[in-house]
Write a structure and sequence with these properties.
The structure holds two protein chains of two kinds. Chain A is mainly α. Chain A folds into two domains: 3-43 and 150-345, no CATH class; 50-134, D-Maltodextrin-Binding Protein, domain 2 (3-Layer(aba) Sandwich). Chain A contains 13 helices and four strands. Chain A has helices spanning 3-18, 21-41, 60-67, 82-91, 119-134, 154-184, 187-192, 198-227, 236-257, 264-281, 296-299, 303-315, 325-345, and strands spanning 50-55, 74-79, 96-99, 109-111. Chain A has a four-stranded mixed sheet with strand order 2-1-3-4, sandwiched between helices. In chain A, helix 6 packs antiparallel against helix 8 (198-227) and helix 12 (303-315) runs antiparallel to helix 13 (325-345). Chain B is α/β, with parallel strands linked by helices. In chain B, a hairpin with a 4-residue loop joins strand 1 and strand 2 (34-44). In chain B, the strands form three sheets. A six-stranded mixed sheet of chain B has the order 5-6-7-3-8-9, with helices on both faces. Chain B has a four-stranded antiparallel sheet with strand order 11-12-10-13. Chain B is built from eleven helices and 13 strands. The chains are: A mainly alpha, B alpha/beta.
Chain lengths: 349, 326
């Protein structure tokens, strides 16, 4: 172990990144912008009103019943004929269409598209409006409790996933591209004729990631907690350890991905191949619980799943490192595997 | 001249301890070509050996095998008494290598590059000293991308000097540089040599070989075709001088190559573009014969020159091609 060479190899990587304004943008600004856009898009938006279509033959008392209570959030749109209303319904511009019953004594007819998610709340609101019209004193069938508490909104779910995705993206792109670039310049061969230890070279990459990590995570987390109001219920130390391990793991993966490829294009291709499944299946934007149950144990073995799960448990559920054993194990496994395999198969020429 | 400083005759065979680099029977094959085809090579301590040859002769492949960068398919290599299998790090600590085409990170400063390379070695030189030797002390804070070609090349040699190496391997150290920049690089190499360093260098510049090398090894198609000191190689050509001429425009007659060969004192004849090139022993006699021949055949000679044989002539005589033909 030559600490001096590890220090110097780390230093040139850090300087290399700092002196490239573009790289700084992608590492620091881009994740913030992404978090901001997604965060604001999914911040506590109030419930969507339901749009119900009516036609000329729809009895006036029905229309009145639907609009009597503002808190039911029903908006009425009138159509001259049933057919025209039906076209809008098919396009999803309205959530339901209401008209008189077939015979005078029949209940009113109500058309909706079962496949659309918004049609269910619309139907429930319509039913409630009608029962209130029949008996203004009627009690709601359920005592409702709304999910408005911080920590249970979508943005709270999303934010730790964004952090995980960012750890993966910057780790893999940053390291992978830098390696492809210096391989192209034949600098790797120049190092190979010195007594430099190959492990020092790789540690230099990983360390340089860690130098930026504190700053990067500090910015991102501060933004999430202060601006988006995402909770950080667990202790900061646990949060930091998971981030650190995640960053090391993904820079190791970056080295592995770049260990054979001869060109930047080659690296990009493999990079996407490796990252794409994790973007989708590791619970960044939606929980992996949506996949069939038999897949869950496999998905939990993905490195990004482990990072995301651990970050969520610490941020949202207030867990600490001590309860994240399986996740830590998965992360450590991948980190060691990537490093060892990369060291073995790395193409220096 | 004092007795003490008189050069001693090189011994016919060298003891192992005297050799800095020794290789026997080196072979390297690529998919469709044998780049190095059974090369033997020895570099004595404190000498500079130049490997000369046209592009594709196997110079770079050979030097990279000696540097431990490529594995030979056959043959033995000993560097400073060790083999690459035995003790790679032990050898790397004691050699300095400059590679063709290796580029440094653009946005590193000169001293940052040197400091990086210095960190790889247990013992080594002082950065300031190396900066002085390579003449970049004033450029220490410049980014690599702002250096000229010659400055980059000196930085590259500087990185090879940081461990106070016993042997310096240089692969075409001045290719692509202008004459001024080339001389600056030579000065750095000569300073290393003056301190008793051993050098193995490849080049396709005759001037570089003549100036730096004590011994030359000439490669062609993966084989050694000649070796010796520059003087002995020129002597081996067996010619006193080279006579060169072209035929002036508007000549009516023609000149047969056999007529030239038949002239007394001519050893060999070849064409170099429009020029006829003769290697000769009796210069004066040949020129007189040449004028006679011109008269008889109604020829007008143009651009007639003679010069002492150069390494270029040796090379062309041996390989039938010019060194810098690409």
């Amino acid at each position: 172990m030559n600490l001096n060479e590890i220090k110097e190899l780390t230093r040139i990587r850090v300087l290399g990144l700092l002196r490239e304004p573009e790289a700084v943008f992608w590492v620091f600004a881009f994740p913030l912008i992404l978090a901001a856009v997604l965060g604001f898009a999914f911040r506590a938006s109030g419930p969507e009103p339901s749009k119900i279509g009516v036609v000329e033959t729809t009895p006036a008392e029905l229309v009145e019943a639907l609009t009597a209570r503002e808190d039911l959030l029903i908006e009425i749109e009138e159509f001259p004929t049933w057919d025209e209303g039906f076209i809008k319904l098919r396009k999803g511009a309205i959530d339901g269409l209401m008209m008189e019953g077939v015979e005078a004594d029949d209940p009113p007819r109500y058309a909706f598209d079962d496949a659309r998610g918004s049609s269910t709340p619309a139907k429930l609101r319509v039913q409630r409006a009608l029962s209130l019209a029949a008996d203004p004193e009627s009690e709601p069938p359920l005592a409702e409790e709304m999910l408005t508490e911080t920590g249970s909104r979508y943005v709270d779910f999303l934010f730790p996933g964004l952090i995980g995705m960012n750890l993966m993206g910057t780790g893999m792109w940053g390291v992978g591209f830098a390696i492809a670039d210096i391989r192209r310049k034949k600098f790797l061969r120049r190092l190979l004729v010195t007594p430099m230890r190959k492990s020092s070279f790789m540690l230099g990459f990983i360390n340089s990631r860690l130098v930026f990590l504190a700053l990067e995570m500090g910015l991102l987390t501060t933004f999430g907690v202060l601006i988006l109001g995402v909770p950080l219920r667990g202790d900061i130390a646990s949060f930091a350890v998971i981030s650190l391990l995640g960053a090391m793991l993904f820079s190791g993966m970056g080295i592995l991905v770049a260990s054979r490829a001869r060109t930047i294009e080659g690296v990009s291709g493999i990079m996407n191949l490796v990252m794409m499944p994790m973007w989708l299946a590791s619970g960044v934007f939606f929980g992996y619980e949506r996949f069939p149950e038999w897949l869950h144990p496999i998905l939990k073995l993905l490195p990004l799943t482990a990072v995301n799960d651990a970050l969520r448990a610490i941020m949202l559920d207030g867990e600490s490192l001590l309860t994240q054993g399986p996740e830590l194990l998965v992360m450590a496994f991948w980190a060691v595997l990537c490093f060892v395999v990369a060291l073995k198969i790395f193409r220096w020429e | 001249m004092s007795i003490a400083s008189a050069p001693t005759e090189p011994p016919i065979s060298h003891s192992a301890g005297d050799l800095a680099v020794s290789a026997t029977g080196l072979v390297k094959r690529y998919a469709d070509v044998t780049a190095v085809d059974g090369i033997d090579l020895q570099v004595r301590r404190g000498t500079c050996v130049g490997v000369l040859g046209p592009n594709g002769a196997g110079k770079t492949t050979t030097i990279e095998m000696l540097e431990g960068l490529k594995k030979p398919d056959a043959g033995e290599i000993t560097v400073l008494g060790r083999t690459w299998d035995q003790d790679p790090r032990g050898i790397q600590e004691r050699i300095g290598v400059q590679l063709q085409e290796a580029e440094f990170q653009d946005k590193l400063r000169v001293f940052e590059v040197l400091r990086l390379f210095r960190s790889f070695f247990t013992d080594g030189a002082d950065l300031e000293e190396v900066l002085e030797i390579i003449g970049l002390a004033e450029k220490r804070k410049s980014f690599v991308k702002n250096l000229s070609g010659g400055q980059r090349q000196r930085l590259s040699v500087g990185c090879a000097l940081l461990n106070n190496p016993e042997i310096l391997f240089l692969d075409e150290p001045t290719t692509g540089l202008d004459p001024q920049a080339r001389r600056r690089v030579w000065e750095v190499i000569e300073a290393f040599k003056a301190n008793g360093g051993t050098i193995l260098l490849t080049t396709h510049y005759m001037e570089e070989a003549e100036r730096l090398a004590d011994n030359l090894i000439i490669f062609d198609r993966g084989k050694v075709i000649a070796q010796g000191s520059p003087a002995s190689l020129k002597a081996d050509l067996g010619a006193d001088s080279v006579v060169q001429f072209t035929l002036a425009d508007g000549n009516r007659g023609t000149l047969a190559e056999t007529d030239l060969t038949a002239l007394a004192g001519v050893r060999s004849v070849r064409r170099e573009g429009a020029s006829h090139v003769l290697t000769v022993v009796e210069t004066q006699q040949v020129i007189a014969g040449l004028f006679n021949l011109a008269e008889q055949n109604d020829l007008l000679l143009d651009d007639l020159r003679t010069h002492r044989p150069t390494l270029e002539d040796v090379f062309v005589a041996l390989t039938g091609k010019n060194l810098r033909d690409d």
